[in-house]
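Q: My labmate handed me this sequence with no annotations at all. I'd like to see what the chain might look like in three dimensions before we decide whether it's worth expressing. Could you predict it?
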Amino acid sequence: MGAVRLEAITWERLGDLLAERLLDLQPGDGGPWPRIAFDGAPAARPGDLAERVSQALRVRGRPSLVVGAEGFLRPASLRFEHGHHDPESYYSGWLDTGALWREVFGPLDPGGDGRVLPDLWDPVTDRATRSSYVPLPPGGLLLLHGPLLLRHWFPFDLTVHVLLSQGALRRRTPEPDHWTLPAFERYEAETDPAGTADVLVRADDPRHPAWRGPLG
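A: Here is what I predict for the chain of 216 residues:
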């Protein structure tokens, strides 16, 4: 990651600062819906930060929609085509990027109707979730969280990466999921999420995060 200066902060303060920054965020495509990535391995819990920011936005009178990438995984027959512990499949073949483009990003394009499908597939039951579309009003923010998000060409207007050191990632990843760790090593080498994200949050100690700022 190189010499990056990080400042200690609390999760509460970080959520507030991000929410304040997002109030003035203008979508790069001229549309009315800013799109924000909360990227990080499952052990880094980027979804928790997305939910915290959503709550802070709500207090400020700004609607948002939190969407988890785990709701857009491909069916098990495709995810496990090369076995249940194949890092290459996890890296390149688990996420249904076409569904995300169609059901999440497409409706938020300029001229879109703002009706977002919050999830499509339940990876536990391996069945369609049959969730209803959620209307996101103009000015509402999409907060998409999940792993390996920055390696795709999704049209994010701001990106947040929740970083764990390799040691912390190994400690906090359940033993049955250690087979995924090579995928995150590859992600770091090929995408450099810590260096390319607009906001970097280091969460080795889950009680005392640090971040790269300022925002703005």
